[in-house]
Amino acid sequence: MSLSRLIELIPPPLSPVDAGDALQWNQVEEQFGGPLPEDYKGFINTYGLGSIGLFLYVHSPFTANRFGNLLRRGAVILDGYTVSRATYPSEFQLPIYPEAGGLFPWGSTDNGNELYWIASGVPSTWGVLVVGSRGSHFEKYDLSLTSFLAGLLDGTIQSNIIPRLGLSFTPSPQRR
Question: Which domains, from first to last, does the chain contain?
Fold first, then answer.
């Protein structure tokens, strides 16, 4: 698991915003329809909601922010993809969660790129798909979310879609 590598690269906040506990994770996984990858849950519990390099956002299921909430934002993106797939089936051929090998969005960037899990097999083996903001370019990585992020940060992954990220984590502001 590369959460430890991420912690080496970017120190987490002392008080993560919109992190969860075991009971909350059970409720989220019930809503999601199955288990989520452990490294994702570890990331959210360690970092909470915020941005990496003031550019890349990993969605949290515990935020009220509709743009950063894993389940709410995921449903909106997948609804749009479903409509696009029905309208342009030759251009939108990838399956969506909960279909076998289906995509589910877990993050986004400031310039409109979307980051998905490829939900095939057990959650610990889900890969990552990066879709460019124009939708015509994508990159597939057979890595977990945290391994992918660590690779972007330490330079072992060179993406043509996501630019080199700054080595910082900025928590989202706390709601009062």
Answer: 3-171 (3.40.1580.10)
